[in-house]
């Protein structure tokens, strides 16, 4: 837990500012036994969709820890929305949990989960697809990545539903990972990308079928390849996000161009 992540409803206000009583057993245990916190120690804190700074421990008890937040938390400082969005064929529940954590940790703006031909229908009945469990996975990833930005998650039970959703929004740079394709992210000119979101489609176990690849192509998705290995969805997501972040931010690779931003210029 690299960040004590708090929800706005957990905060208390008094004449001295803002404080929180941490009662979650996992967080209390981590603060006590991993961080070895004592009264007066500062720890890094963040409010979901808002400020990151430090808090000072003012009280320790067996079941709770009181943390007084810095004055910076009196102002709302929302996090920057990440540039990369994902479309993912719904993976098996354990993989989905990892995918959500890794994506939130590394930084994506939103995750569009879609039921495609190779998605097991039983996956749609999984408790992991309940929004409460999705949020828990995202929060764990946010703690790890030290960010307060929570990715938006949508669930589409058909490609038609996904298409209707995408047709309502401005055209972004759209990419689809597909084995055997000659192009790579480097050859698609990502280092020249200056602004606007990048939407990447990652297949379920077994990948996309040919007619699904054609479907994405009709929506403006360009194919690329990340290597010869066949990867699980959560591993592919990490590989793709890492490559994109390098191509979108590295000054040497971008030959002097500014880092890319999500907002359209």
UniProtKB/TrEMBL annotation:
<protein>
    <recommendedName>
        <fullName>16S rRNA (uracil(1498)-N(3))-methyltransferase</fullName>
        <ecNumber>2.1.1.193</ecNumber>
    </recommendedName>
</protein>
<dbReference type="InterPro" id="IPR029028">
    <property type="entry name" value="Alpha/beta_knot_MTases"/>
</dbReference>
<dbReference type="Pfam" id="PF04452">
    <property type="entry name" value="Methyltrans_RNA"/>
</dbReference>
<dbReference type="GO" id="GO:0070475">
    <property type="term" value="P:rRNA base methylation"/>
</dbReference>
<dbReference type="InterPro" id="IPR029026">
    <property type="entry name" value="tRNA_m1G_MTases_N"/>
</dbReference>
<keyword id="KW-0963">Cytoplasm</keyword>
<keyword id="KW-0489">Methyltransferase</keyword>
<keyword id="KW-0949">S-adenosyl-L-methionine</keyword>
<dbReference type="InterPro" id="IPR006700">
    <property type="entry name" value="RsmE"/>
</dbReference>
<dbReference type="GO" id="GO:0005737">
    <property type="term" value="C:cytoplasm"/>
</dbReference>
<keyword id="KW-0808">Transferase</keyword>
<comment type="function">
    <text>Specifically methylates the N3 position of the uracil ring of uridine 1498 (m3U1498) in 16S rRNA. Acts on the fully assembled 30S ribosomal subunit.</text>
</comment>
<dbReference type="InterPro" id="IPR046886">
    <property type="entry name" value="RsmE_MTase_dom"/>
</dbReference>
<keyword id="KW-0698">rRNA processing</keyword>
<comment type="similarity">
    <text>Belongs to the RNA methyltransferase RsmE family.</text>
</comment>
<dbReference type="GO" id="GO:0070042">
    <property type="term" value="F:rRNA (uridine-N3-)-methyltransferase activity"/>
</dbReference>
<feature type="domain" description="Ribosomal RNA small subunit methyltransferase E methyltransferase">
    <location>
        <begin position="82"/>
        <end position="245"/>
    </location>
</feature>
């Amino acid at each position: 837990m690299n960040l004590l992540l708090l929800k706005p409803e957990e905060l208390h206000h008094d004449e001295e500012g803002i404080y929180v009583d941490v009662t979650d057993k996992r967080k209390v245990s981590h603060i006590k036994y991993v961080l070895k916190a004592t009264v007066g120690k500062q720890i890094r804190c963040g409010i979901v969709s808002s400020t990151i700074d430090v808090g000072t421990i003012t009280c320790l008890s067996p079941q709770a820890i009181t943390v007084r937040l810095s004055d910076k938390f009196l102002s709302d400082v929302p996090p920057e929305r990440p540039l990369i969005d994902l479309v993912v064929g719904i993976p098996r529940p354990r993989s989905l949990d990892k995918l959500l954590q890794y994506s939130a940790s590394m930084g994506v703006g939103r995750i569009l989960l879609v039921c495609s031909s190779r998605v097991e229908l039983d996956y749609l009945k999984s408790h992991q697809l309940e929004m409460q469990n999705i949020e828990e996975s995202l929060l764990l990833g946010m703690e790890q990545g030290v960010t307060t930005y929570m990715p938006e998650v949508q669930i589409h039970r058909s490609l038609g539903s996904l298409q209707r959703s995408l047709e309502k929004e401005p055209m972004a740079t759209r990419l689809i990972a597909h084995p055997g394709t000659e192009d790579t992210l480097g050859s698609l000119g990502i280092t020249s990308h200056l602004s606007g979101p990048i939407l990447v489609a990652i297949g379920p176990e077994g990948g996309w079928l040919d007619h699904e690849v054609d479907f994405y192509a009709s929506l403006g998705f360009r194919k690329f390849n990340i290597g010869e290995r066949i990867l699980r969805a959560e591993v592919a997501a990490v590989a793709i996000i890492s490559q994109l972040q390098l191509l979108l931010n590295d000054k040497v690779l971008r030959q002097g161009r500014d880092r890319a931003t999500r907002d359209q210029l």
